[in-house]
Amino acid sequence: MKSTKIHEVGPRDGLQSESALVPLDVKIRWIEGLINSGIDIIQLGAFVNPKRVPQMAETEALFRYFMQPRRKPEGVTLSALVLNSKGLDRGLDVGVQMFCMGVSASETHSLKNTGMTPAEAQHEVLAMARRALLAGKRVQASVQSAFGCGYEGPIPSEAVLNLVKAYLNVGVRCISLADSAGHGIPPQVEDLFGAIRILDPAVDLACHFHNTYGLGLANSLAALKSGVSYFESSFGGLGGCPFTKVAAGNVSTEYLVHTLQRMGRRLDIDLAALIEVARQISEFFDRDLPSLILKAGSIVSFKGLPAKELQHETA
Amino acid sequence: MKSTKIHEVGPRDGLQSESALVPLDVKIRWIEGLINSGIDIIQLGAFVNPKRVPQMAETEALFRYFMQPRRKPEGVTLSALVLNSKGLDRGLDVGVQMFCMGVSASETHSLKNTGMTPAEAQHEVLAMARRALLAGKRVQASVQSAFGCGYEGPIPSEAVLNLVKAYLNVGVRCISLADSAGHGIPPQVEDLFGAIRILDPAVDLACHFHNTYGLGLANSLAALKSGVSYFESSFGGLGGCPFTKVAAGNVSTEYLVHTLQRMGRRLDIDLAALIEVARQISEFFDRDLPSLILKAGSIVSFKGLPAKELQHETA
């Protein structure tokens, strides 16, 4: 059984969907909270056009800050999203440890998000993946809109799997399927990840779900069952690509970690620290977040019982 | 395979958790919308103390209205919640078709909700179940707080199963497990329903999930897998017992029906009609509801594709 890793994308996917800009020092405080919680990978931002997505303008500054000696433990990986080779150059300059890149399987979503058709984006992304791998970086390549698109409706599995094959062919060892619009349902999740497993039984699998139709956690559990080991989620359940129709927030990190802990996994993560970060974010934006756990509190703190006594044994 | 039935509890569980009182004519309009959608069972209200729960004061009036000839199709069942024999008398007087009753497996929740210990409540409920069955009524008996309690934490499976055995012994043929506080997780759902199936392979199973920790739909899908055929849900995702700690809303009916339809089930239900009811409710309370589908729209309407083309075949 592969271990279960949490990839926090809140500083990128969460904050890019907010109109309010978060000052650098506030972002740093939240990210420090995430680091202290013990989660595995944190996506600090995206190297995109700051005029188009001003919320991501300080991505370089964040990497310069956190890549200084003693600013983070060894075990934490800092990732960034890159859309094109210019972004990759910027990321290589500031020492990004893991590059996340992707192509949308939906033509409309691809054009709105990157200005490129899926074929053009694939060409760009494969070239970037090669360069990042040659530079010794971890690379995760994703298929966006893999489970359906708000503009186009259903997406054929073949389109998804052809992209995956192209990623495998250039040596990418971590493949992510992103449900950018939130259309996925559990049996579809099991089928698509199962098909990738057949293509390459050893590749690392990652998932990225949005909650438009309430199925974010159900789909995450289906992914867990399908051998996915990297789970992308966002603090407070924030998130949503500005160029995707009807996306809702990402799966919330607190919900995801809570669920895993109730199932006996990742009891090393400090859920209370994650809830505290989400509380600060809720306070900053002055509104309730999709993640109700902020109101309910962590179930593992009842009567001071240790998490162990509240887990449910699972096969 | 048992068929999948929707039991809408919004007019009861949804509205009892709202401080604003809904006028009778408005409730009637919403319930007419639910009836027209083609769902199976609608819980019109609860026969409880109107001073304690004023939102339920017009339950008799609703039954008098809808039990008139030609006010509803044959296939729709109207249910009500009863807590004690006085409530049962009131329900029998106005022709309730299906009585829902339950005992909390949590002592604290039971005392706060009914003023009775679980043992006292069990005595009362078993007597009510016998009377309602003798009167020729459908009876559903539930174990509340079956998956954990906001006050007490974990609830031993034995407490749940002992209550179920008592229900079966008096002839109840529909057993519901209610996750009143929203603490359930999918493997626990499968275990508990599986244990009841072993006690009685033919009994009808029902589930009632709250969404406190984001797992409402994931738990519903686990219940579906475990042979549960009656699914309780609430319009717009409203709901929450006023006497349960940290409960969040119920699973939303629109989300549930959407999920089932994507999996090829219950394509006869008019999801757009359900979304329209939830829209009216959102307008009445002048706020967004937990159910994001109101904003996203039904996925089955994309480009006018019929639902059939958007379902995902499942085993």
Brief write-up:
The structure is a homodimer of 315-residue chains. Chain A is an alpha/beta fold and 315 residues long. Chain A has helices at 10-16, 24-37, 59-66, 85-93, 107-114, 118-134, 157-169, 186-199, 216-225, 253-262, 271-285, 293-296, 307-310; strands at residues 5-8, 41-47, 77-82, 98-104, 138-144, 174-179, 204-209, 230-233.
Please tell me about this protein's structure:
The structure is a homodimer of 315-residue chains. With 315 residues, chain A is an alpha/beta fold. Chain A has one domain (5-310): Alpha-Beta Barrel (TIM Barrel), CATH 3.20.20. Chain A is built from 13 helices and eight strands. In chain A, helix 2 (24-37) runs antiparallel to helix 11 (271-285). The longest helix of chain A is centred in the middle third of the chain and has 17 residues, at 118-134. The first copy, chain A, is globular and about 40 Å long. At the A-B interface, helix 8, helix 9, helix 10 and helix 12 of A face helix 8, helix 9, helix 10 and helix 12 of B.
Rg of chain A is 18 Å
Spans of chain A of 5+ residues with little confidence (pLDDT < 50)? 301-311
CATH uppermost class of chain A? Alpha Beta
Mean pLDDT of chain A equals: 91
SSE pattern of chain A, N- to C-terminal: EHHEHEHEHHEHEHEHEHHHH
Q: Assign the CATH superfamily of chain A.
A: Aldolase class I
3D shape of chain A: globular
Most strands sheet of chain A: 8 strands, parallel, barrel
Helix-residue proportion of chain A: 40-55%
First CA to last CA of chain A: what distance?
11 Å
What structural category characterises the helix and strand content of chain A?
A: alpha/beta
Number of domains of chain A: 1
Strand order of the largest sheet of chain A: 1-2-3-4-5-6-7-8
